[in-house]
Amino acid sequence: MRVSAKVDYALRAMAQLAAQGGGGPIKADHIARSQDIPHRFLLAILYELKHAHLVQSHRGAEGGYELSRPASEITLAQIMRVVSGPLVDLRDLPLSDLGYEGAATALEDVWMAVRASVRSVLESVTLADVVAGQLPRAVRTLAATYRRESPARHAAVDAGAPRG
Q: Is residue 116 part of a domain?
């Protein structure tokens, strides 16, 4: 799974809107500056999010963008799907259509597990969780495991050992 700049920017923009917490619309310029997102790119992302009914826009001097529903009802997965499609995409095929055979048959189960794992994280985290810094326990546990294991993996790669 690769997280594009577009996905990263969309998540950051939505977090910025969620942090506003009903304080009224926020101008795109403010979001772009506060999250270091190219303004034109942000406008294109906000357009997609608006058409998916995740944000709404308001015209006029006091206009701008705001969430269409509470941050606690918008998951990271929903945002990512709007701007980039499926969370885990394997050659643009449904996993049931892969048809691996022989020695590679078990790879279908690997891809299913990867998709389920990514989904379990991104569908369990809401914008409200991100803004509050209160991620679900399972996500915090995975992040802690990564932090513990990451230095050892980098050292092994630097020493020429296979990646784990």
A: yes
Q: How far is CA 104 from CA 99, 101, 107, 109, 110, in A?
A: 10, 6, 5, 10, 10
Q: How many domains does the chain have?
A: 1
The token duo for 110 is: 């690997």
Residues 124 and 139: their CA atoms lie apart, in Å, by 8
- pTM for the structure as a whole: 0.84
Angle between helices 39-51 and 76-84 (to 10 degrees): 110
Tell me if 6 sits within 8 A of 79, measured CB to CB.
no
Helices (H), the chain: 5-20, 28-35, 39-51, 76-84, 107-122, 127-132, 137-158
Q: Is the pLDDT assigned to residue 38 strictly greater than 80?
A: yes
